[in-house]
Amino acid sequence: MLSRFKSTVVTSLVTLVLGVAIGFGFFGTTPAVHSQGTTGDPEAQLFRTIYARVNPSVVSINVRIPASAAAPAQGNSFGQPSQTQYAAGSGFVYDTAGHIVTNAHVVGDFVEGRGRRRQRGQTQDASRELTVTLPDGSTVPARVLASDAERDVAALSIDAHDLPTIQLGDSRAIQPGEWVFAVGHPWGVRGAASAGIVVGTGAELPEMPFNEREWLVISLKVRPGNSGGPLVDVRGRLLGINTLMTGPQIGAAVPVHTIAAFLKDKLGTPVADVGLPSS
To answer: With bands split at pLDDT 50, 70 and 90, how would you rate the model's confidence at 42?
Structure first.
């Protein structure tokens, strides 16, 4: 009787192990979901569609500071600058008139209306070059039309027209848990993309700097060079500007209704209804 019981238990265990092994793809058997690859994956196809729609409007913002223009504090022990310095970020085409939107901290303290800036210790005529690299690889001079450090938004102008733009979305309608998609040039890698979900929206979010401002907090890593690039929804509509990283795999973006209010205040630019404050 005991022998028969042991035999039954052993048989059951063998059957269970074989079932688990087959279910996880051992012995040459692969679940159907893996056999499709990414080609048939609806989620992957959605991301590719969004990327194809958004990437043609994403640009690279380039700042070149010649050695002769750098502040002495940035140079060697003799107070002389040692080498030409570079900085870069992302931006996007806002309209067909050649207006580019990015973060204010990407362009730094460039004088509004000019493609040059001054820092403490440099001479009046020291040139600092501000350029924009378009998706086709061409690079054109840019000038700052307006910049707001508090909202961390800047508007640039380039001599290029009829460029593809990004449709505006509604950053006040987006809800936690919804998919979002970021495109930019982190670490100089052109056209890099990442996806995540919305963690929270609004002002006074925990652990957020400048918590008097409204933010979109997202579960994706915003790397150096991503700043100024677009954050879009699953339809490729602009939700905000990727701005900073607040923790592991957590980033924050300036909402598009803040961008629209900035453009209206600074440039008088008419904008579509994207949830502008009523005041």
So the answer is: confident
